[in-house]
Inverse folding.
């Protein structure tokens, strides 16, 4: 097994375990066991748990954001793009292993702890805000901020009560904001 294969196996195990059970609840020995990567190789690839957590969140960010961006890319206009975002969320909230936002979960567990982890969390939220600004259309920054709050709120509600309903409720609010032109009340 080379370092790249070990990295992939370690990240696959880390993602499954950290997302389902929490970062602090899962030790490096458990990651090693689940991945089948020898301990020496694990620490060669990821010298510390912080490096593994950062890599897990970074990989998840790239995949999650790309999937949402791809879904919204084909929309004909901002109203459709925003609707697609919330439909995408409804599907995600309905996945059997849905456990909320991995980035908010990490922040909730680690707080302002490891700087590299916090950087990935902040970058993810910045990218989400930018994606929503693109969906909302040019010059609608205030609307993008409101949409971000709807996305985050729906995600938290769905973490407590999984299923598409929180996304559908947020979508209805987003549509009303789009019709009202967005911006401060």
């Amino acid at each position: 097994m080379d370092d790249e294969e070990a990295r992939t196996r370690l990240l696959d195990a880390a993602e499954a375990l950290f997302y389902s059970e929490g970062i602090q609840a899962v030790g490096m020995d458990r990651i090693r066991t689940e991945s089948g990567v020898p301990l020496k190789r694990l620490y060669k690839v990821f010298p510390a748990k912080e490096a593994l957590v950062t890599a897990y969140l970074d990989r998840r960010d790239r995949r999650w954001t790309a999937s949402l961006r791809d879904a919204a890319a084909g929309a004909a206009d901002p109203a459709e793009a925003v609707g697609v975002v919330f439909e995408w969320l409804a599907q995600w909230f309905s996945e059997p292993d849905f456990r909320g936002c991995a980035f908010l979960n990490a922040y909730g567990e680690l707080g302002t702890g490891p700087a590299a982890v916090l950087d990935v969390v902040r970058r993810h939220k910045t990218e989400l805000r930018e994606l929503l600004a693109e969906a909302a259309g040019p010059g609608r920054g205030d609307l993008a901020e409101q949409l971000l709050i709807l996305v985050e709120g729906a995600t938290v509600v769905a973490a407590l009560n999984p299923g598409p309903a929180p996304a559908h409720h947020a979508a209805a609010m987003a549509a009303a904001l789009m019709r009202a032109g967005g911006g401060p009340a």
